[in-house]
């Protein structure tokens, strides 16, 4: 869309839908959607005059709506400012001063709550956009933001409904502008603590989450941030949690050697009646524990020290409380039972704190793994009937195994852990009727016999009916978390699991997956077994069981292949894709592959093999002759020796120690060079003149290499054929025309000689081809 069409659309919206203040709230959704779809306010690279006029009308109309007497019209103007900030940077820079001033004026007036929320969020976005712009920050943010923060603190005590919005704005302010936020730092911190320690707010409510986020950002990014201040605040949180536990565990006989108490934050007093006090204390513990988790999880601008020992002492204090804890004789047992009602929630919060500590501290907790593993097994043992706590414990075990790997598996008892997992993933089938009690009744008392006969099984339909069988299994979330632990356990140390446990696990996995093909009479159980998440985890565990097989039992790979092949026809697309992935892994296990090797075909011609031969030795021979006892001419010509090495050694050749007959046709071109040597004094250098126009003579010699028999002890390397073709051309004097013609005829009568020297280094016959010229030493000797 060009700028002209955009200007027309924007002008149409302004004219048709924004001039009626009483009805404009009904058109706001349509206006916002249209502007978003067509990007009518976005900055174009080349904006036309019509576009500038339309944008000017838009800004003028927004200012008019902000000053309107109609409440909904003011709300519409604020909404138009927000969408203008998102789409146009030019409108933001041009109207920042006027919009910020108008919104601050509206904030000081008694506006409805929904308008105040829009004003606070819009001003927060305005100030945040000036963070990386020093000029705007110096001219506007430095002047307006302190007033904005101060008024938010005052407004928090007047309107409780605005607390989440106010805390969100303050948290952004302290993060982006910590220096400007410093005057209201302590007031905001007290506001957050009052909300967290009140005890009437649920820890997962929006207000509690905003208070935790704001408090954490004040500690991490506030103006007073340093290492000691951060650690002191964290120790105060730990001390406050211990103070809450002191009141909760009043009826329990704890250990006498308790760690030194830490000072905490000041908290409002609670009632002495445990019925009223315990819900408030449980809520405080949850909120402060979430604040502790957020404090050690979020990043800080400076390196800090985490008090690990104090945090672990707090966690161990809660983990030591279980159902058979000793009760103080002087206390009311009803208070103890009331405490036991909230113990699972305390344990779950401790699991969250430990998870955050593992992610933050990391390897520094390695020395505590043995104690942590014993705590985890204890939690599994005490949470058989508490599925939420059991899921939390399994998730914590998964995190520990992912973080520490084999280190945790060495500390934790894998057999005990596997026993808990088997109990959770195994499905027990139990008949609803006890056939053993179906005994015949005596006929002495007819009245009683009739009553008993009515309660007995009289036919076999009840044994076959689906309602006659009960399937006992754990919660689906518990099964998913247990299977996740099993998957990581198989991946980490699957081969080291005992054969009995491994056999039980494989049988359970196969039986549960294969039980999906149960007959239609068991539809009720089929619904339980076909839970998608549990089913997916079963397939994943089966794959990891194949990847890490046991050394002492047969593999289940054939069964897994059939299961994964059938899983490709499943209704779940996620299961189909996973089965395809699993089949590719099974194929690699069945058909192991080596890296591809580059080999030459057997039908490659010998001429192509000669092109790929390697040069073994390059030797240079110098031929020196004296001319007239004064000048010396030295001609050097390189002599190359080629080794033909077969790329694959044939076993038949090695056994018979023979070499097949090779027929090689070599065409040689002998070039006769004439050199003119000019004589001079002893100081002059020889000049070599070459004239190859008349002396280039080609000769075709056919060399047939007969089969050479080698001894059996000869190695493969000694069977190489070496073909030497040296053609040294010595110094020749300038010949006359008649001598050249004679030499031309003599060249065709060159001899072919084979050197059969028995004293060679190779201990075998090496055919040598010597191409001699007309002036060779051989003919001279002849």
Automatic annotation (TrEMBL):
Which key words are in the record?
Answer: Nucleus
The reply to whether Chaperone figures as a keyword in the UniProt entry is no
What species is this protein from?
Rhizophagus irregularis
Q: Locations of Acidic residues compositional bias?
A: 756-766
The record's InterPro entries line, in alphabetical order, gives: ARM-type_fold, RIX1_N
Which Pfam families does this chain map to?
RIX1
Q: Which residues fall in a compositionally biased region of kind Basic and acidic residues?
A: 730-748
Query: Where do the record's region annotations for Disordered lie?
Result: 709-782
Which GO cellular component does the record give, naming just one? nucleus
**Location relative to the cell:** Nucleus
The UniProt family comment states: Belongs to the RIX1/PELP1 family.
- Mind telling me what this protein is named? Pre-rRNA-processing protein RIX1
From its record, what is one biological process in GO terms?
rRNA processing
Lineage, top-rank taxon, reads Eukaryota
Q: Which residues form the Pre-rRNA-processing protein RIX1 N-terminal domain?
A: 24-197
